[in-house]
Structure formats: C-alpha cells, structure tokens
Amino acid sequence: MSEPDSNGSLVRYYCTAGNGMERFLIGEVKKKLAAEDVCQTAGKVLFSSSAGIHRVSELKAAERLFLLLRRDSPVRLSAHSGPAKAASELQSRVLGDISQWTAAAATWSRLQGELSGRRMTDHKPRREEGRGSEEGRQGETEQRDEESSRGTCGVEAQRMKRKRDEEEKESSSAEERRISEKKRGSVGVQETSGSCREMDDMTEDKVEHVKPTAGRPSRTEPDPSGPDRLSFRVSCKCTGSLSRYFSSQEVSRVIGGGLSRLLGWKADLKNPQLEVNVSLSDDHFLLGFPLTRLPLANRSYMKTTGLRSTVAWAMASLAHIQPGSCVVDPMCGVGSILIEAAQEHQAACFLGLDIDDGQLQKANDNVEFAELPNIQLLKASSTMLPLPSTSVDAVVCDLPFGRKFGTKTNMAANLPLILTEMERVLRVGGTLVLLLSPQLSCLLKNLLAQKDSGPPPTQETEPQPGLQLGPPPPRCSLQHQETLRVSLGAIDGLIHKYVKTDA
C-alpha cells in the first residue's frame, strides 16, 4: 500500500526505461504506487499517483523520473513556412498555456522540498548509529564514567541547549526579516543568481554535510519565494520529420527564449535550478521536469557496480521470491542480482557462488556496504555446486559475456554442465532465470531441444553379445516460460525463464 502524497492529490509523472524494461516498470508502478492512467510510449512509461514522492523516487525499473508537464500530439509544421515563422509556430505550440508552466513549477518546487527533507532525515540516523558504534567500541569503564557524567550534568546541558536554540531562532528570524526587506528593493537578476547557487548545493554529495540551524531553512530546499524567479535550461531530443527543420539545440534556444520572455525565468546552462526536458518525435510530444539530479538507476547502496541495476532487479522479480525462499546465484560476480533481490525480500535467504577470488571480494564489499545479512557468499565452481539436489527455490544467474569483466570459463563448452547443475539443485516448481548473450541464448535453445527430443530412435535388433547399453540421457525437466530481450547499453541480452516441472 503506497503512502499518500503530502497534499493528497494525484501527480502525473513519467519515467524513462531501457529497451525491454517497460513491462517491468508498468508492473512496478501499479503494484507499489497504485498508479492510475498508466500508458507506454517508446522508452517511457507515464502514470498518475498520489503516493509520496519518496516512494516514487524508489522505483527500481526506471532510469530517470520526471514530473509530466504536458503530453500532446506530435508537432507538425507547415512545409511552406519560412525559418522565422516555423520558429514562431514551434514556440507557440510547445509553450501553450503559460499557467500550466507556473503550476507545474510550483508542484516541482514542492516535491523538491519533500525530497530534500527526506534525505536529511535519512542521513541523521546513520550519523547517530555511527556515534553509537564508536561508543560501543570503548571500554566498559569509560561507559560507566560517561553515564555517571550524564546523570550529573544532563539537566544543566538540556537547559543550556534550549537557551542556545532560542537565541539562534531569534537571530534567524531577525536575519530573515532583514533579507526580506532587502529583497523587496533589490533587482530580480541578483535574486535569481542567488537561488541558482542555492540549488547547486542540492547534489547528493553535499546533502550529507548540511547541518541546518534550528529555525533556519535548509539550503537544500527550493527557494521559498516560489517558482517566479527560477533559473533554467532546456534539454531537447528532436527526431523524425521535425528534425529536418530544427536541430535539438535550435529547439532548445527557441523554447528557452520564450520562457525567458513570458515567465521571466533566467537561462543558466551551467547550474540551473530547473531543467526542462523536451521530447519531440513523429509519435509523441512530451514536456517534463526531472525530479532527481542522479538517475534512479544509480543505487546508493552499491559500492562496485556490475550488471545494470534495473536489469538485475527485473531478473529477481521474475524469480517470484517468497518469504523463506532460498535463492542461489552460481556465478554471482560482484553480487548485483543478489543485492537487488535482498533489498526487497528481507525474509528470504540468498547464496552467491563464484570461482573468482577478486569477484567474491567485491561482492563481499558490496554486501557489507548494503548491510544485508541475509546474503552469504562462497567460493565454488558453477560446474560442481556444493548443494544437495532439489534444495533451492530459485536460481538466478547472469552468465558472463566476457566483455565488462574477463572470464576464464569457456561458457559455450561448459554450458551443458552448468545447466545440469542448476537443474539438479532446483526443487520441483522452482524458477530458473538466466541472462545470456545472443550467442549463448541460441546455444541454450539448441541444448534444451536436444534434451527434450531424447535419444535417437534405434532399430529393433538383438544387442551384440557382451555389449552393455548405458542409460539414455535424462530428459529436461525445465519448462520454458518466456524469453525477453533487454538493453545492456552497448549490446542486448536475453532473459530466459524456466520452471522445473519434475525431478
């Protein structure tokens, strides 16, 4: 059940997603956010939700998150329009109703404030835990002395703290009145410039070091004066027939000029408060404001990245992990799939195996960094898993392509044995999810087809004296469910899903 937005209203968003990831993102927003009016366009998913922004910003299948300003039919210009008239038509069509821009900017400002407040509360417990851990490492004698000191001086310390807070609050109020009076007589350019510097402090790295004074607004929050004096820049992707008239840079200049003239916003290409994202093609026209500086796919709990985080999460979601499930990754690498799965399934247990000491060390560092005690790691070969037969509920594995991380294993030669071991340890009804290169995908299909066909037919003849026939090769117990193509950046991968039907 998603938590409601602070003002209880529906907010319209859209997210970008890698090729093949749209279906996962659609399912996620419906399940986690109770999203409404969900629809899909090329590489994007649009939806409405009243869930709090901190819940929306935790989507796992999305690349980037935007506040949707407008979705409209494609922009089409007259073939006989001159450059000046075409630019005027484009500006008029894109800008539309200016009141929509001011309303969207106000919503964006509110959501930014909620995100900033959430980040501050998230960082505070970590600092307190760090202090607690440091105190815990001291000797018992020091702890007793410290507790005694607290008992003697605690009341006086609290009285002094309250007095200091009241003085700071009075000083802050006086400073705010002075600044407010000065602003009324100052020029708009200076205010915008100051706001721009404030928004530059909203990066993830600087949030951790902000210590707001009591009664004084945090610098990570949007300018409380509202969206009237925003600094901005326009990012545009222009494709299709419109690109014959204007390049993406020219569209950005046309729209930027209109916003500056009609709204009084100040263009700032280096450190803007607000980025305006424009997507123009023959299929759609989208306007939106990014809600986070970093992509959602950048996981704060990953120290060393491996497989693309969105794809790792998608693979784990296909495994249908339940509380108490035992999940194994026999070639875990740096642990990307295990960590994505364990983040959402705290009541399941996970085992990562790898033969490479370097990869296991990185995986161990990642597990410790993410603070996930339900993940265990073990050095072992995927061709000889140290596990009993039918002992695990799910096997999820990214078979190395050998591109990002080198591999000494000949995957093509070892694939039959690796698949046999995965099939052996998987219980009946368990799920097998594999990520393969296109070449290994073809090899796997051929391999399973051979196992399904059984031994070749033989003529009914008497066996030769002294010749003992061996048992026929076992039939495959893995039933194919689906194959999905997903983008991994420079190349595509194929996700295969199987369910074990019998022992």
Q: Explain this structure to me?
A:
The chain has 503 residues and is an alpha/beta fold. It has 13 helices and 15 strands. It has helices spanning 22-33, 53-56, 83-95, 98-136, 140-184, 188-200, 204-207, 248-263, 309-318, 336-344, 357-370, 411-425, 438-453, and strands at residues 11-16, 36-41, 44-49, 64-72, 231-238, 266-267, 274-280, 285-290, 326-329, 349-354, 375-379, 392-398, 426-436, 478-487, 492-500. The strands form 2 sheets. It has an 8-stranded mixed beta sheet. A 7-stranded mixed beta sheet has the order 11-10-9-12-13-15-14. Helix 3 crosses helix 8. The longest helix is centred in the N-terminal third of the chain and has 45 residues, at 140-184. The two termini are 38 Å apart.
Low-confidence stretches: 124-157, 179-225, 466-473
What is the number of beta strands? 15
Strand order of the largest sheet: 2-3-1-4-8-7-5-6
* Overall geometry: elongated
Task: List SSEs in N-to-C order.
Answer: EHEEHEHHHHHEHEEEHEHEHEEHEHEE
Helix-residue proportion: 40-55%
Radius of gyration: 29 Å
SSE class: alpha/beta
Instruction: Tell me the major beta sheet.
Output: 8 strands, mixed
Which keywords apply here?
single chain; 503 residues; alpha/beta; eight-stranded mixed β-sheet; seven-stranded mixed β-sheet; 15 strands; 20% strand; elongated
